[in-house]
Amino acid sequence: MPCTIRLFQVDAFTTQPLCGNPAGVVLDADELSAEQMQALARELNTSDTAFVLRPDAPDHDLRMRFFTPRKESGFVAHATIATHTVLAALGRPAAPRQKQHTGIVQVQVAAGSPPMVQIAQPPAPLRAAPAPELMQAILAALGLAADALDPQCPALIAGSASTRLLLAVRESAQLARLQPDLGRLAELSAPAGAAGYFLYTRHSEITGCDTEARMFCPALGISEDPVSGNAHAMLGVYLLKHGLLGAQSGHAKFIGAQGHHLKRPGRVQIDVAVSEGAPTSVTIEGQAAIVFEASLALGAASAS
Fold first, then answer.
1. How many angstroms separate the CA atoms of 195 and 212, rounded?
2. Do 145 and 98 have their domain in common?
């Protein structure tokens, strides 16, 4: 008998369909092999697809696996927000302890339509930028001159399981003009130690937002990621450690805009918990819009 599954396409970091960052969500995926998950991710062809699995230990409430069209990922914030939005819409019990390859994160779903989903995770590590000659090659591939960079924000690599080069430009207009050589950026990812390139400005022209950003991950098969929660969480840690994000009552917060260059505008809210001037955890907050639901049997699919 074919295995029939229930899947959704959901736009995260927005309340409007066809905006934000699309993700696939496949429920009750325990009977699927890794090869089938990869094939489904390739078929859905969003930046990431989340597969929901039963817990396998008492320390968590559900398990998740994430796949891009090309490979498996350790953790994906926008697909997590998409998944918990679907679970809430279906009236399923809350599952605050989510396990994936990178460990366990805490997920809270606030009341609302759509609900606000909050993901708490440890602060990402920060390490030095690539060597100067490699940075020159990256800037050339991005089509950026050195004087376009914000001198208050030195380039750094953030993250461990999934790394990003954080690169600040002076003005939002410079983000809009970017036409990177994606093939060259993919070649440079391994020697640079960065799976993606997160470019941002602290001088947003989007009302209500503190930063604007674009992110390119061609080495992961993603030419441009519309809206990244993980990269904004990394940015929150970076800005705090460089004295560029103030804390009040133990929290440093900001709102980042991304996706409008792809006509998929989205917003990410970041809350960095601070103790004695150091980050202790980072919460990614966002909403999502369910675009469609379908059922799929191996070899045949039908809208539901």
1. 20
2. no
- The span from the CA of 263 to the CA of 243, in Å, is 32
Do 224 and 176 belong to one domain? yes
Could you give the number of structural domains in the chain?
2
Structure tokens at 207: 């009302």
114 domain residue, yes or no: no
Q: Percentages helix, strand, coil for the chain, rounded to the nearest 5? A: 25, 40, 35
What is the predicted pLDDT for the residue at 192? 96
Stated pTM of the model:
0.93
Give the separation between CA 98 and CA 107, rounded to whole angstroms: 7
Region 183-198: mean pLDDT is 97
From 225, 242, 259, give the residue that closes a domain: 242
C-beta neighbour count of 18 within 10 angstroms: 11
Preceding amide of 114 cis, omega within 30: yes
pLDDT band at 303 (very low <50, low <70, confident <90, very high): very low
Q: How far is CA 85 from the centre of its chain?
A: 16
Q: Which amino acid is located at 193 in the chain?
A: G
Q: Is the pLDDT of residue 302 over 60?
A: no
Q: Which range of residues forms the domain containing residue 18?
A: 4-105+288-303
Mean pLDDT within 99-107: 94
What is the DSSP track for 214-256? EEEEGGGTEEEES--HHHHHHHHHHHHHTT-S--BTTEEEEEE
Average pLDDT over residues 22-31: 96
CATH number assigned to the domain comprising residue 205: 3.10.310.10
